[in-house]
Every structure is written in C-alpha cells, then in structure tokens.
Amino acid sequence: MNPERDPLFRMIVVTMLTVVVIVLVCVLGIRQHPQPAPGGEATALITNASSTRSANTPVARDFLITTVPLLVHEQTGTFDYLAKDFGKKGVLSDKEVWGFSPSSLTVYQGDTVHVTVVNPSGDDHTFTLPSVGFDLYVKAQSTASGSFVVPKTGAFAFVCTIAEHSPYMSGQLVVLPGSDA
Q: The whole model's pTM is what?
C-alpha cells in the first residue's frame, strides 16, 4: 500500500501543516501589530532580521522555535513499513528524526538573540549552539528561554545534543555583518 494514499497519513500531514501555519500566523500577526505606547504613539517591535536597522546598531531579536517530530518510533504502530527502519538493523535503529521549526535564523553581528523553544512532545530536547557556547535544555512538554550575543559573522549550526536525535535535529544561525562592514 502506498503511504501517501493512506487517509490517516494524509490527515496527519494536513494536521501538522495546519498547526505550523496557525503558529506562524499567530506569531507574525502579533509581532507585526505593535501596541501603542502610553503617549499614544506607536512603537516599533524588532523581531527578526528583516526589521529596519540603522548602521551598526545591535538590537534584540526574538525567536520562537518549536520542536517537531518528523519520523519517530511511535509512528511504527500506524505505519507498519517503519518497523524495519526502527528495528535493530534498520537505518533509524536507536534514532529518531526531529526538527526545529524554523530551522534557520538570520541576525546581525552584535545582536542579542532571545530564543524561546516550545517542546510539545514527550521527549526532552536541547537547543545547543556550540560556536557561541549557548546550551538550552528543554524538558518534555515545556518551554525554555535564553539569550546570547552574536560575536561574529558566519553560518553556525545549532543542534539537539540528545544522542537519539543526533545528527538529524539541527538548524543554522546566519550572522550578517553590520551595514558599514
């Protein structure tokens, strides 16, 4: 049987996509509509790398990241063809495929990055950025937050260091130089 034609598979995929779209719409909608300041004037919220930026002025960047199950052993009960892959000699033996959503973050050198990781799953995760010495542990069904300052330009990998999730659960922090570089 073709898994793409299975109604349960299609329902799961549509549900996951719907949840991702709703979260993105809610997060972007909230951040694009700043609340008026006490004096009646609107203030700008700086939330991502596409925000207006003056020359060499580091800013705070807020990112909401969600852990997402892509291929996990719990799915073997629903999709029998996965049993072989998760078996002792399978390609996913002692592993699971998880992801970060979003999996790419873009900031400028010197920015302060505030990361909030939402983990709705039953597995613990980390959000680890070795190049800047940042490590955030996120227990199952919880949220964790932390901040770091971006010291240099380049592309840097962030990962989950839980052995079962490595090497699949990763993403990239892209750090751009200031506008006068």
A: 0.63
| DSSP H or E segment with residue 22 | helix 7-32
Q: What is the pLDDT along the chain (181 residues), one digit of tens a residue?
A: 555 566 676 667 666 666 665 665 555 554 444 444 444 433 333 344 444 545 467 899 999 999 988 887 777 788 788 888 878 888 777 777 889 999 999 999 999 999 999 999 888 999 999 999 999 999 999 999 999 999 899 999 999 999 888 888 999 999 999 754 4
Count how many residues are written for the chain.
181
| Helix, strand or coil, per DSSP, at residue 16 | helix
**What is the four-CA torsion angle of 83, 89, 95, 98, rounded to 10 degrees?**
-50
| Residue 17: closest CA among 65, 70, 64, 72 | 70
Query: Residue 54 contacts by C-beta under 8 Å, 6 or more apart in sequence?
Result: 179
Q: What is the SS3 assignment for 84?
A: helix
Rg over alpha carbons for the chain, rounded to the nearest Å, is 19
Measured between alpha carbons, how far is 33 from 48 in angstroms, rounded to an integer? 14
Q: Which domains does the chain have, with CATH numbers?
A: 1-45 (no CATH), 46-176 (2.60.40.420)
